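Entry type: protein chain
Record version: 2
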Amino acid sequence: MKPLPDAIAIADAIRQRRITASSVVGTALENIQRLDPALNAFTAVFSEQAIKSAAEIDRKIAQGVDPGPLAGVPFSVKNLYDVAGVTTVAGSKVLKDLPPADRDATLVARLKNAGAVLVGANNMDEFAYGFTTQNAHYGDTHNPHDLERSAGGSSGGSAAAVAAGIVPLSLGTDTNGSIRVPAGFCGIFGLKPTFRRLSRSGVYPFVADLDHAGPFARSVRDLALAYDLMQGPDAGDPHILERPIEPTLPGLEVAVPNIRVGVLGGWFAQSAEPVVLEAVDRVATALGANRTVELPGVAEARAAAFCITAGGGAALRLNDLRERPQALDPATRDRFFAGALLPASVVQKARALRLDFRDRLQAVFRDYDILLAPATPCPAPRLDQTTLRIGGRVVPLRPNIGIYTQPLSFAGLPIVTVPVVSHGQLPVGVQIVGAPWREDMVLRVAAMLEKSGTVHVRLPEIVAGATG
């Protein structure tokens, strides 16, 4: 039972009739059955519908109809994406009795329209409020590289499903780092696009000011294709910033000439473990980066992001906090209570600081095309670990895993997390950060690093053992 190759290879083989969509989807479903009891990456599996969808793909191909660039490719989604006929639970039990969604989320629909086959929904932190995917209702998701360790969060189930080879693509969300942290811990590629670049229609909200939607993959070309297919205006999302559709995949193999790369220092270098800094150095060396950049006001930006997150998240949960607080995961409930007590003036000041911080970063990108930063201060921690040592101080682990991701998502920048793997060590993620709307640049740089072998995805031992 081999793990599935990347999405583009699968779709090509299916369109050329070397394999069938039904066999590929069947393998994905078998891999879920075999591997997920140990991983707990899925909260729902859509076997019947997936088998029907795969058969329809095969029927179209037999009739000479091209089902699309993702023909027969299995994918999964974080369980806060609407799936027609399924209740969207967003990692919580308080939503389980709501009516099922009457349509797919826009991004889910766009992947399906391109021929992809949805096989399941992935575990997450309740309401996306966390960095570890430890969920009191649905259990912990385990890292495929070490089952005693965290897969990251809040999109940990989505990342684990891709890292374990169950699916080649999945969708997550990123508010303060929830795509980049799990991508780093699980050793795969993750894209957080520019804020408001992709539609959030049909995605259960956590913090409207900060929520991003984006994909995970085991190759940069898959990441680019998924992003390309999900671009475009959407009448269902009034907040999306309409931009021309700018395909990134066709130019992916073209090296970026005279690229100006800076390595983020100061805040982004003072608290990481040596193995993390070594990973950043390896990427910097491959790109010829020898200049250090210190961003202004990073600590203040992170503090403001905490305020917006707590206040914005609590605003959506006020009725639950009043009427049934016992139904919430204690790890999220107490933070929602704290957020509900924040004065509105604090959140407003944080929003004003955000605008100022974004303006300051715009000035930095006049001199640089790409900035490099760690994705996390450490490799994946143990699931029973509760503290982290940062700057000589012992701090709570959960809120501080995002120390390097939170300020950058606060500014809404496009970022690809790439996996750096050293022999015998856990994967480490490095953030490839670009100027707003330059997804093409961060993806091309990630592709350069992948082609050179500087970054790559390693098959976890759990998969190797399960596949014989």
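Comment: DSSP finds 16 helices and 17 strands in the chain.
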